[in-house]
Structure formats: structure tokens, C-alpha cells
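input
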Amino acid sequence: MASNSTDSPHEHFLHRLYGFIEYYRKQISSLIAFIPAGSILEDELKIVKDFEKKMTAKRTRLEEIMGEIRAESEKYVEEFERGKRESEKRIEELREKCRLEQLEKDKAANLANENLRKRSKEIYNNIMKKGSDTDKENTARLNEALISKLDDLEVESKEENEKDSLIQRVDGGNKITAGLK
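output
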């Protein structure tokens, strides 16, 4: 297109713009011919779909695992609570058993202590009774021995006794010991 002087500057600008657009359209068309655009888009789309498929599979698997974990967790909580209740019940039973055994032991110990108290009181009373009997027997024996010793001493006459009473005694006035020497 040749430019003549009768064209307005506006028309001239539009003409040049059209030429510029045509030139770059042809350049883009030739480039598109060399680039397999459909296969690239398909490959990109395939990559995106594969990625989405893979991530969906992973998410599904994770959701399944989370569901299993949730179910196992609930099961664990139930088992834990049941085990806790059973343990508390067994502990309470054991405490009650120990308490009853201790009551039996205390009862047996009290009975044994009472029996020991009764028996030791009987033994003490027997000892005291025997002791007083023995004391009486010993006192009686001592009295008999004393009487026999006194009988063994010959008291001659009243005058000799008076005479003896005037004599100063070396033995402290014990006539029995003086007579025995």
C-alpha cells in the first residue's frame, strides 16, 4: 500500500497498524505450526489429572486411616474406662477383703489377749495363793524351829536367870546366842 498525500494522518496510522498486526499474526501462525500445542495441553492436563488423582487417593487413604484411628481411639477409650472401673472395683474388693481380714485378726488378737489376761490372772492368783500358803508354811516351820531351840535351852532356875541378867553380855544381850556359844 502506497501512501499518497491525500490520505489523512489517521488513515495512514490505521494502515500501518494493520500492517503491523498482519506481520505478527503471520509470525505467530508460523510458530504455532512448529509447537504441537494440543499435545502439550493434553500432557499438562494429564499431569494435573494424575496429580489430582494421586492426591485424591492419598486423601482417601488418609481419611480411611483417620477413620480407623478414630474408631480405635473410641474403642480404646471404652476399654480404658471399662478397665478403670474394673480396676477400681477390684481395688475396692481387695480393700474390703483386707479390712475384713484385719477385723478377724483384731478379733483373734483381742480374744487371745483376753485369754492370756485370764490365764495370767489365774497364774498370778495361784502364785499369790501358793506364796501366801508357802509363807504360812515357812512361818510355821520357823516358829516350830524357834520353839524347839527354846526348848533345847535349859533354863535352870529363876535365880540363875536373874544372875544372868546382871552379867554384862558381850554379845549384845542375846541370851540365845550366848547360850549357844
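quick obs: Confidence is low (pLDDT under 50) at residues 177-181.
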